[in-house]
Amino acid sequence: MQRKWVYRLGVVVIFFAVLKTPASYLIFGNVEEGRVIEIVFQYSGITVLPSSSYSRIEFRYEDKLYTFLGEENDKLLMGEEVKVIFFDSNPAKAKIYSFWGLFIDSIIQLPLGLLIWWAFFKSYPKMFESP
Length: 131
Description:
alpha+beta, elongated
């Protein structure tokens, strides 16, 4: 019984750890209007790999201008207006205020974390068992 409890506790901890960052942006973040000022292309240097594009977005907060790079291949156009979310303490670490802008990292990290946790438990079947 103790093994099932530890496994479930681990799953809950992984969920909270992965969703902590987007949740904190949604709870404590400020939203401002931003604008795409440039599309930055990044080449890998390997001919078989395609290039990636990033949108450089600028926004104004407390009479200061901040810029940051959006997510890879986010398909925004020059001059397009987007909502930006950031913390008061660090406006330079902003994100695009959209589902993908906030949760793309979590969507990738959550299955990987759960897979690693599951593989760990399958690899050590006697761990966390009561004698």
